[in-house]
DNA sequence: CAAATAGTGTCTCTTAGACAGTATTAT
DNA sequence: ATAATACTGTCTAAGAGACACTATTTG
């Protein structure tokens, strides 16, 4: 897998990818964490991630590490930022490329976590634990990115299953932004965004209340007009 | 300068920084380019940049390379994206961390380009030349970032000298967005943004027309409300 | 004086948000 | 029936953009 190359002439380094995978479960924003099997931070929680192979793209490495460490396959994956403080890894000079991934709340087991050491944990709980390296900063930065992207990108749909209701979409916004949104205005607003939502023609009924129309995400890459906080 | 470390155990790589420095000169958006002294792309233009030292932060490396290769000192510097395609550098596995920098149009010579091989060139001209590595993609990505940030960040002020008029600020927007903006509405709009502009109390007269009030940039990090295109 | 730029006034049209009211379900 | 959710209607206030008009300079 890992090819050889000539010994380094200049300052060399390891390059790793780390991934913040977000989902909404039990009405809370949750993040995928793994239990570390080695020092530093042995036994504690950390973000999934690992070294990039020699013949591998960054995004490919992120997907591979995610699959290996958590068993997850994500549809939304985006580079956030690269961390390069000289002492960020006490062992060797290592650069960390952070990725943000987003998943729907799939039923436990279905493409879920085969890996024993992987678990969903509410974001605020993980933020309160002692994370190794600069994983705390990474989590904060990824969250900020996700919050910002809700406004102008269809990323919220990545938190939903392929077919979803506007109520489900609204909950994503409410939970991630931590605010309450007027259902009536939110419905009008999202439907008015060009190519954001595509009506399926079906409706679903979940619990009491009028059945909701279902939608799939459209071709829009930018929300125009944006959904303001 | 470059410390030693133990020989690599896993896939190692070189890490470089590349910088897109933008300014507005002669009413055009221009970018700093250097003439390459080695292959690949020998004799052609390229973005300034170079390898990160072992004991150096990424941003520090970007500032150092910029100083060494172009003699420039910038105030605005921001990480954009990291490029990691396995074949992006034909010689060795090299990751490239892209930075966006912005400068005012300083009078030629003053903290200008000591370096012979560095030059300002209009962005569209550099885009039309044959750039080495993935510098073309980098330039496109940096431009998109700059255009987007005009809307919601005070980055436009970084294109201006410490004290500037609203007319000068408007020109930055017009040139970078490639659109015409209504001077009256633009003036009202920018002045209404919280903590964006701070009046100096002075006015300056450049050519014909009523003298303009001058401003310095305020404490705002986010423009609220934003300046829409 | 004319031409050019800075800045104010005002009008119109669109949109965001508040909130009342109607539709349709589970229990 | 009651409660809960989905969705429509409507009003109000704020904001964006068009554009006329005033202010102050250079030549």
Plain-language structure description:
The structure is a homodimer of 229-residue chains. Chain A starts with 13 loop residues before the first strand and ends in a 12-residue tail after the last strand. With 229 residues, chain A is an alpha+beta fold. In chain A, a hairpin with a 7-residue loop joins strand 9 and strand 10. In chain A, the strands form two sheets. In chain A, strands 1, 2, 3, 4, 5, 6 and 7 form a seven-stranded mixed beta sheet that branches. A three-stranded antiparallel beta sheet of chain A has the order 8-10-9. Chain A folds into two domains: 135 residues, Nucleoside Triphosphate Pyrophosphohydrolase (Alpha-Beta Complex), CATH 3.90.79; 64 residues, Winged helix-like DNA-binding domain superfamily/Winged helix DNA-binding domain (Arc Repressor Mutant, subunit A). Chain A is elongated and about 65 Å long. The structure holds a DNA duplex (27 and 27 nucleotides).
Keywords summarizing the entry:
alpha+beta, Nucleoside Triphosphate Pyrophosphohydrolase, DNA-binding, homodimer, 5 helices, 229 residues, Arc Repressor Mutant, subunit A, 2 domains, 3-stranded antiparallel β-sheet, elongated, 7-stranded mixed β-sheet
Précis, in short:
2 copies of one chain form a homodimer. Chain A has helices at 58-70, 123-128, 135-152, 166-177, 183-192; strands spanning 14-25, 28-35, 45-46, 49-51, 76-83, 94-102, 118-122, 164-165, 197-204, 212-217.
């Amino acid at each position: 897998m890992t090819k050889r190359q000539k010994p380094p002439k200049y300052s060399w380094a390891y390059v790793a990818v780390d991934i913040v995978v977000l989902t909404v479960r039990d009405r809370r924003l949750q993040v995928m964490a793994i239990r570390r099997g080695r020092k530093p931070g042995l036994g504690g929680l950390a973000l999934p991630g690992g070294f990039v192979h020699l013949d591998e793209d960054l995004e490919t490495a992120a997907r591979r590490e995610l699959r290996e460490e958590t068993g997850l396959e994500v549809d939304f994956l985006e580079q956030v930022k690269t961390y390069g403080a000289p002492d960020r890894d006490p062992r060797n000079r290592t650069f960390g490329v952070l990725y943000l991934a987003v998943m729907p709340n799939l039923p436990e087991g279905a493409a879920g976590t085969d890996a024993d050491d992987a678990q969903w944990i509410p974001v605020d709980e993980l933020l309160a634990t002692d994370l190794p390296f600069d994983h705390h900063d990474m989590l904060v930065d990824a969250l900020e990115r996700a919050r910002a992207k809700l406004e102008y990108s269809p990323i919220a749909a990545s938190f939903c299953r392929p077919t979803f209701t506007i109520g489900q979409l609204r909950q994503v916004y409410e939970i991630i932004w931590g605010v309450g949104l007027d259902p009536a205005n939110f419905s009008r607003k999202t439907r008015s965004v060009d190519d954001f939502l595509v009506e399926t023609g079906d409706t679903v009924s979940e619990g009491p209340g009028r059945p909701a129309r279902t939608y799939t995400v459209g071709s829009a890459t930018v929300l125009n007009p944006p959904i303001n906080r």
